[in-house]
Structure formats: structure tokens, C-alpha cells
Amino acid sequence: MPRHSGWISAAKLAASVVAIMAISGVAVVAFAAVDLVSTATTAPTLTLENEQILEGVPDIGAMDGGLNFLLVGSDKRPDDGAFGDPEEDSAVLNDVTMLVHISQDHTHVEVVSFPRDMLVSVPECPDPEDPDGEPLSALSGVKINTVLSYGGFNCVAATITQLTGVPIPVGGIVEFYGVAALAEAVGGVDVCIAEQIDDDYTGVHLEPGTQTLSGMESLQFLRVRHGVGDGSDLGRISNQQVYMSALMRKLQADGTLGDPVRLYSMAKAILANMSLSSALQNPTVLVSIARAVQEIDLSKVAFVQFPTAYTSDQSAVEPTESAALVNAALQADQPIVLDPASTDESEFGTGGDPATSAPPGPEAAEGGTGETTETTPPAGAMPTDVTGQPANEVRCSTANEG
């Protein structure tokens, strides 16, 4: 958003409050909006170089055009020691790095997750400790989760831009308690568990079936790695996609994205628990972004794992040739179409919903042959090493057999 003087910004916020009150017809929103504005003006701010792209975004209603949003999950431990010694156990790593792409015509969304151990090249970045001084040197062959501690959030954004070829004007950092607060704000998320999951590292113990997760339970589920998939970060990404797709289904089914009161609750949680780039400090911008995706068909919301393969020594992963196809789709603002077989065939993938899966074998129907019927990938589908799931597809977290 363009920068304004203090009184102009205050006038815009006041006008937004009046508009929200008129839409909702609920007097309590007036008090909520005042509280929200107060939160927005005191929350920590990040700055990104591409913010000028947002000039002209409306205050109320769906935003015009598309958007690329960078979400970083930091492993910085809170000061209360609930997740370990903040001095000994924290390295301020971007263990979760996601690029959210909303198309120009608001018909599709891609959420691309980048594995934390993926090797990347880092461009020259401003030093967050001395922005006007000598920039930090460019790097090559470093794990992406070290970029946040090296050059700050803006350097992570520059690295993803260099990797994918798309500009990133907005983004934010969320830490442990922020994830729990967001889950609480939406009233919990129903996730499918294919088999017993036990992970002593995060304290996750979940029985098979549909489980409703909220607050700290959601945080631990999103953190679990050793107990799901193949026990790696790739398995954790697939697990996170189970949760995020379930969250999208809930938000659309409940009408949350079209309800100003519920949007307030979510925006409040976001502003209170995340460090956002300065263009997002105005709560009406958050509402306009939410309104942009409220009518998108869930089959057109794709959660994608950036395609990688292990290095020869198994210590890291690096992008495969298919990564260029993912980048090209993002640059051209084209939907990323996934092969339905890709995640099923992946060793770190998730499972289909047992309640909706057709029974296999000759018992499924009289006269059946028992032969496996191969499905034809959709036109324009990505290669099978591009895994993920559309938001309308119910998938289940699978346990790590090891």
C-alpha cells in the first residue's frame, strides 16, 4: 500500500471501521475494530522492496489483481521456555517457507512449500543490522532454512524470488504461539488420521479417524515430523498440506471468508501473533485479500511441494528438473495441475480418505478382475515428482513405520 501521513491513514482506518459496521449490522464490531486498529499500529513491521506493486488495492471488498505472499514459520523458541531454552535451542531458522500465489483473475491459488533442507543460492541482501551499510554477500549451495538468520525476512523473500522468478510484495513471520492462536481463531480444524500416529518429540499421539485439532494441538500436529510419512521434513510438508486443505474446506463451508465478524477474529489473531510486512499492517488489506479467495473453487486451490531430490550423501535436497515447470506456471499465472497419482506413489506422501476410497480387488464388484486400473493424468498435469493435493481432496496423515 502507498505510504500516507498519519492523519490520512487514521482517516482511512476510521472509514474502514464505518464500512465494516454497515456491512455487519452488529454494534460490537465497532469495539472490535477499534481494538484491531490498536493491534495493527503496535505490531512489529517488516519491509519488502516490492510493496509498490500493491498500489491501488481497495480497502473493502476483494482486492484487484493477483498477489504473491511469503509465509515464514520461525523455530525461534518463546521466552517462557515451553519449547526449550530460547537461548540454547533457538537458531531463528525459517523451518517453514511457503509462497502463496493468488491469480490475477482470482480463479486459482497455489501454495508452494519449500523443504527446509533444500539447497539454494542466496542473492546479495541488505544487512538487517546495518541496512545502509555494506550488503551481505551472495551465497550458493546453502540450506534455505538458514537464510532467515543470515539476512532476515527480506533476504528470504529475495531468495524465493530469485528461485521462482516471481516478485513478492508482502509476507509475514509466524512463531509457535502464533500458529496456535490462528488455529484457535477458526474454531479448530478436522483432520483425517489414517493410522495411529505417535511422536514423542512433539507429544503428538493421535488415533485413526477424524480428529478436531485446535490451539496447541494444531501447532504440534504441524510440527510433527518423526511420526508421519517417511519421518523427514518432506513427510512433514505433506502432513501440513492435510491440515491446510482441511482448513480451507472449513473456512469455505462455514462462510468465514464472507463474514466480517469472523474475519475480524482471524485478523486479530494474525496481527497480534505475526510480524507482517508494512503493507499488511492495515487490517482492511487483510480483509480484501481474504475476500479475493472466498469464491474460488477448492479444486483450484493447490498445495504443492516444490520438487526436490536427495543429494548423493543424503544430507540435503536440491530442486529437480520439474522445478522449472512449477516456476514457469507461477510466472505465467497458470494453475498448477497435479497428477492424482503423484502423492499416492510418494514415500513421504499422505493417504486417501478411507471413507471415500473405492474398495479394491475382485470383491469390489461381481465379475471384477482384481487388476489395477491406471488413471489418466489430467491434461497439463505436472510430472509425478511434483506432489501435493488440491484443497477439495480429503487426504489422511499416515504414520511413519520406522
TrEMBL record:
Organism: Agromyces aureus
Record's compositionally biased regions (Polar residues): 386-402
Coiled coil regions in record: none
The Cell envelope-related transcriptional attenuator domain, residue ranges: 94-252
Protein name, per record: Cell envelope-related transcriptional attenuator domain-containing protein
Protein origin, superkingdom: Bacteria
Family to which the UniProt record says this protein belongs: Belongs to the LytR/CpsA/Psr (LCP) family.
Pfam families: LytR_cpsA_psr
NCBIfam families according to UniProt: lytR_cpsA_psr
Listed transmembrane segments: none
Biased composition (Low complexity): 363-381
